[in-house]
């Protein structure tokens, strides 16, 4: 097509639609590109994450019974096998008559880690504030299914109304130092309620085979206040201390286990608050340390076991219909109460502030979750052992990342797992190293061909999601469908990016990794506050759109390290966050090592403008 003919393609619209005929001078090549370069090379394989070659907890969950308390017959005990590297139980059977429940029996195998474990509790309880003591009391005496609901933030009131959950523990009684108070409420709520009962039933069902007693009886590790008189149990919890040490082991923490099973259940049906809820679960566990009742290793064991138990139950075919009904009913009720829909619920769920949502600070949640994964313990073994993903663990993410298939969710879990070598966490299957907070932020690395297909018509995360990890690897990302996927990380994957449908939103300068970017269809949207860097080549075909939002001069500019080949399609320039471009000013929107071809149309929202192509990019002049 000649330049004159190309210019005639411009048409009028509510915003100015520009042809490629402005600016550049006679020496600038404005000829269309007749043949597009090829898309980034398909790696030729999809990542496979095999099951570990050991007996799977999800296949043996029913063995976690108090009548089975040895590692060879109880899957729960086996899940916590990493503790055997630190502590040798005195006996390996349910008979506790030969165990006092006090230090001096059993053998500490890693004295440094054991000392750090108990000293952590000494320090935490010595520094404990009055507010922390109150929180520790509430999380101890309230049913865990009730206490963790505040992790829902703005959705808490609607959830409590739907579940009809009650508690009799509403504060610290004046005589709590001498009287033990038990919660007389109904835990997760009313299972018979016609609107929300399925949710309550599901939460209760996810605790099947969930006892920590078999593991406590097997490992026989004393509570921290029995190891050291310097551990200061919260005074209001003195009456809650067991008078029978032989039946009161510390590892793993039962409260931590129950709390984490409950938050995983709630996060399954309300995944918009997935990260906040699991952060709340780790907070409950930390309160067990602040109370003086448990040590860091105890609560780490409780979390690890809870993940396995939840996965065993969520994968159980007997619960298939219940989990789907609970998911549907929870969302129907909460959306009705909050006057939201599938596409507005997420925003509502995060509309709180620090004044009314203790988990409104995402960065703080992430830091706290990661800290509580290891509690500052050093790596005591090699830190470079590849992560394993337990069979069935992928189901934990099936509502949080619903547009991925099961194998992709396994790949997410493997790519976000913690390094090896930390105490307790190197269990045979890999439960200990799962970092669910990071997994909810999508992939940590691309291996092979990663094809993501989103569907805006289905709403929720199918329509829009954000990945916030720093994504590495040699794989390739391909986006299809009609939804929007936003990337926030400082990414470095090498295999390139192909957009065939939907919208890929680049929310950081390094969002698109180090490879080529190929906009074959759909939209590439740059909303970063800096320059969007494309490490390789950039190609846009006729069916594609590139959209740049400038919140200030230079923000969102697409900087291509290689060649920009523009076969056609649309470029749209928007202005946001109150930024108003000055008339007569020119703004670079595309820079490259070299530019070939021109856009079929250029749309500048709200302004008359002229495109000025150059040999290495495109500038837009604002005319008024």
TrEMBL record:
Organism, as annotated: Pseudoduganella plicata
Residue span(s) of domain Phosphatidic acid phosphatase type 2/haloperoxidase: 198-314
Protein name (Swiss-Prot/TrEMBL): Phosphatase PAP2 family protein
Keyword Signal in annotation: yes
Signal peptide start and end residues: 1-22
Keyword terms, alphabetized: Signal
Domain of life: Bacteria
NCBIfam families linked to this entry: autotrns_rpt
Name of a matching Pfam family: PAP2
Gene3D superfamilies linked to this entry: Phosphatidic acid phosphatase type 2/haloperoxidase
């Amino acid at each position: 097509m000649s330049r004159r003919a190309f210019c005639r393609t411009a048409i009028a619209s509510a915003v100015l639609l520009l042809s490629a005929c402005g600016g550049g001078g006679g020496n600038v090549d404005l000829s269309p590109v007749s043949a597009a370069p090829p898309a980034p090379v398909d790696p030729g394989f999809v990542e496979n994450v095999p099951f570990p070659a050991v007996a799977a907890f999800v296949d043996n969950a029913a063995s976690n019974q108090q009548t089975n308390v040895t590692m060879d017959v109880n899957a729960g005990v086996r899940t916590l096998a990493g503790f055997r590297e630190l502590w040798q139980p005195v006996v390996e059977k349910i008979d506790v008559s030969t165990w006092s429940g006090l230090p001096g029996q059993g053998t500490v195998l890693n004295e440094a880690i054991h000392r750090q474990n108990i000293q952590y509790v000494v320090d935490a309880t010595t520094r404990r504030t009055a507010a922390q003591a109150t929180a520790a009391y509430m999380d101890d005496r309230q049913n865990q299914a009730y206490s963790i609901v505040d992790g829902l933030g703005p959705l808490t009131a609607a959830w409590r109304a739907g579940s009809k959950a009650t508690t009799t523990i509403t504060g610290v009684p004046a005589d709590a130092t001498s009287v033990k108070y038990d919660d007389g409420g109904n835990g997760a709520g009313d299972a018979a309620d016609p609107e929300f009962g399925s949710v309550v039933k599901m939460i209760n069902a996810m605790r099947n085979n969930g006892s920590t007693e078999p593991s406590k009886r097997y490992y026989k590790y004393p509570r921290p206040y029995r190891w050291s008189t310097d551990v200061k149990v919260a005074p209001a919890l003195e009456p809650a201390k067991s008078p029978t040490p032989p039946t009161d082991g510390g590892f793993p923490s039962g409260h931590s286990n129950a709390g984490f099973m409950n938050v995983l259940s709630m996060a399954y049906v309300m995944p918009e608050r997935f990260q906040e809820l699991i952060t709340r679960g780790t907070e409950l566990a930390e309160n067990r340390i602040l109370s003086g009742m448990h040590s860091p290793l105890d609560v780490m064991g409780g979390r690890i076991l809870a993940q396995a138990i939840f996965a065993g139950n969520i994968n159980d075919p007997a619960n298939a219909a219940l989990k789907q009904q609970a998911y549907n009913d929870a969302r129907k009720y909460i959306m009705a109460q909050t006057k939201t829909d599938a596409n507005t619920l997420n925003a509502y769920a995060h509309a709180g502030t620090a004044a009314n949502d203790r988990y409104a600070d995402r960065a703080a949640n992430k830091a706290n979750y990661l800290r509580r994964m290891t509690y500052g313990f050093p790596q005591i073994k090699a830190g470079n052992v590849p992560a394993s993903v337990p069979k069935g663990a992928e189901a934990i993410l099936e509502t949080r990342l619903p547009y991925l298939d099961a194998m992709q969710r396994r790949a997410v879990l493997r790519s976000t797992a913690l390094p090896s070598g930390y105490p307790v966490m190197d269990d045979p299957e890999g439960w200990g190293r799962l970092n669910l907070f990071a997994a909810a932020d999508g992939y940590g690395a691309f291996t092979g061909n990663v094809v993501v297909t989103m569907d805006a018509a289905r709403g929720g995360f199918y329509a829009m999601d954000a990945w916030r990890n720093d994504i590495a690897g040699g794989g390739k990302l391909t986006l299809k469908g009609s939804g929007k996927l936003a990337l926030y990380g400082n990414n470095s994957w090498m295999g390139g990016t192909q957009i065939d449908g939907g919208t890929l939103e680049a929310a950081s300068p390094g969002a698109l990794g180090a490879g080529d970017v190929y906009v074959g269809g759909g939209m590439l949207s740059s909303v970063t506050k800096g320059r969007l860097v494309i490490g390789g080549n950039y190609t846009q075909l006729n069916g594609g759109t590139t959209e740049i939002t400038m919140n200030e001069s230079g923000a969102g500019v697409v900087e291509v390290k290689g060649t920009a080949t523009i076969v056609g399609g649309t470029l749209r320039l928007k202005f946001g966050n109150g930024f108003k471009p000055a008339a007569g000013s020119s703004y670079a929107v595309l820079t490259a090592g070299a530019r070939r071809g021109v856009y079929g149309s250029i749309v500048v929202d709200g302004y008359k403008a002229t495109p000025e192509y150059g040999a290495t990019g495109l500038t837009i002049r604002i005319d008024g």
